[in-house]
Amino acid sequence: MTVPSNDSKSSFGRWIGFAIIVISLYVTWQIRQILLILFMAIVLANALDILVETIRRRGIKRGIAILITIVVLLLSLVGLFGIIIPSFLGQFQQLVNLVPRGINQLTTNINQLITRLDPDLVAVLPTVDQVIAQLQPILQQIASRGLNIFYSSLGTLLSSILLIALTLMLLANPVPYRNCLIRLFPAFYRQRVDEILKMCNQALRGWLKEITFDMSLMTLFSLIGLSIFGIPLALTQAILTGILTFIPNIGIGLSVIPPLAIALLEEPWKPPAVILLYFYCYLAIQKLDNNPRFAKLSTYPAVLLPGFILLGQLFFGTIFGILGLFLAVPLLIVSQIWLKEVLIKDVLNKWE
């Protein structure tokens, strides 16, 4: 009877490990929508936990602080859907009707400008229709995936209830869920995983504070500026600007389209004024974020390069659609920490 050698045993063990990794990746890909809901619940739970910790600093027990936070959240939702949303939807419908008119006016102005240029230069430059045709496949793919995820996950009442339930469970008692995740790793690495999870939690909280700060300022600044310029539907556009600020880089570009389109229907000085308004608002927020006085509020330990953010938005937007664009930065923050701590520090830096 032949006894298997140690080399054959180790080779068999490596193949088993490789097969487990492949199967795990396949299962993860198949349940990616569920994992996205779970990640959204983690982000929301972290956001609510910031309020819980703020209340606890006043000497209130965590259970009572969580109850107060839930009551505040419910009252905010009632006020949002009962007071703000109806008026917002009414003005938003007007905005939807005005923006195409402004875009048509912009197209007319561009065509008039093209007729005044050198014909040889015009032949080299791509037309507006060509640019739109090149962007259309990417936009359609992102939109279709966004709609699929919306209708298959967040579009149903059951999934919304699941998201809220997961958020409240993670907020009320996150330790058991954290321990379950840690136990998925080998015993010798569990302490290290716990450290990495703490880093991710700290980074997400810092980013949530920063993005809330930026969204509030962009809403306030755009509201004041658009009101001074006399741009119609200033409040609705300011709220929309604040929401889109959640998407770095791309959001500020998308948020300027509605006020710019409407400004094209007004006096000639208003379009450049709107562009300058949003440009200086963006610069002001960047300076405030880098100001040492706001360091505790606006900075977080995970530093993302702008190029990586754009690539991450394209990657997660292609996979998850609109929700991927909104959650691209927190997904990148968590991914960067895991890659840095596990792959670089624990594997590559110790690889001899």
TrEMBL record:
<dbReference type="GO" id="GO:0016020">
    <property type="term" value="C:membrane"/>
</dbReference>
<dbReference type="GO" id="GO:0055085">
    <property type="term" value="P:transmembrane transport"/>
</dbReference>
<feature type="transmembrane region" description="Helical">
    <location>
        <begin position="35"/>
        <end position="52"/>
    </location>
</feature>
<protein>
    <submittedName>
        <fullName>AI-2E family transporter</fullName>
    </submittedName>
</protein>
<feature type="transmembrane region" description="Helical">
    <location>
        <begin position="217"/>
        <end position="240"/>
    </location>
</feature>
<keyword id="KW-0472">Membrane</keyword>
<dbReference type="Pfam" id="PF01594">
    <property type="entry name" value="AI-2E_transport"/>
</dbReference>
<feature type="transmembrane region" description="Helical">
    <location>
        <begin position="64"/>
        <end position="89"/>
    </location>
</feature>
<feature type="transmembrane region" description="Helical">
    <location>
        <begin position="149"/>
        <end position="172"/>
    </location>
</feature>
<feature type="transmembrane region" description="Helical">
    <location>
        <begin position="12"/>
        <end position="29"/>
    </location>
</feature>
<dbReference type="InterPro" id="IPR002549">
    <property type="entry name" value="AI-2E-like"/>
</dbReference>
<feature type="transmembrane region" description="Helical">
    <location>
        <begin position="308"/>
        <end position="334"/>
    </location>
</feature>
<feature type="transmembrane region" description="Helical">
    <location>
        <begin position="246"/>
        <end position="265"/>
    </location>
</feature>
<keyword id="KW-0812">Transmembrane</keyword>
<comment type="similarity">
    <text>Belongs to the autoinducer-2 exporter (AI-2E) (TC 2.A.86) family.</text>
</comment>
<keyword id="KW-1133">Transmembrane helix</keyword>
<feature type="transmembrane region" description="Helical">
    <location>
        <begin position="272"/>
        <end position="288"/>
    </location>
</feature>
